[in-house]
Amino acid sequence: MLKTGLKAFSHPWRWYWLALGVILLDIATKVWAVEAFMYGPAMQIIPGLLQFTYAENYGAAFSFLADAGGWQRWFFGVIAFGFSIVVTVWLWRLSPAKRWEPAALGLILGGAIGNLWDRMLLGYVRDFISVYYGGWSFPVFNVADMAISIGAAMLVIELLFFAGKKGEAEKSAEV
């Protein structure tokens, strides 16, 4: 009885639940940032290093093509939608024994859909986390961007350090 009740959280659904959690957290924090900072001052979290503020990104990463005239909204939307389908299928096909790779993909999927939501609904992505030091500042970002970055880093770590070892372990288990 307990086993059937938790079927919605079994493989691969648990990774889609992770993606949904990222999407909901991303949307909630963006709504909060709009209410708190759109017309008000930034909030210093660590003075001289980290603040919450409000920015609208009409382009892609690091505001790439932000001033392209509007076509980039649909271009990046189509790319994000297609990428989300690829990641969704990729997650579905992974072995239930895997943990690291599907967790990374769940983070990436949630982040991609979180930013896609903004892009399609508003025409831009809402950002609010600003990291800076002196005259240097990193482009303002959001929870979806963090999830994508963490997921991508996890995939790189998987590829560089664990992919060959898991392949050998799976081969020895087959013999």
TrEMBL record:
Molecular-function GO term, any one: aspartic-type endopeptidase activity
Stretches that traverse the bilayer: 74-92, 104-124, 136-162
UniProt main location, coarse: membrane
Catalytic activity line of the entry: Release of signal peptides from bacterial membrane prolipoproteins. Hydrolyzes -Xaa-Yaa-Zaa-|-(S,diacylglyceryl)Cys-, in which Xaa is hydrophobic (preferably Leu), and Yaa (Ala or Ser) and Zaa (Gly or Ala) have small, neutral side chains
A cellular component annotation (GO) from this entry: plasma membrane
Keyword Iron applies: no
Pathway(s) served: Protein modification; lipoprotein biosynthesis (signal peptide cleavage)
One Pfam family of this chain: Peptidase_A8
Subcellular localization(s) per the UniProt record: Cell membrane
Signal peptide per UniProt: none
Keyword presence, rRNA-binding: no
Function description: This protein specifically catalyzes the removal of signal peptides from prolipoproteins.
Protein name per UniProt: Lipoprotein signal peptidase
The species this protein was found in: Microbulbifer thermotolerans
Gene: lspA
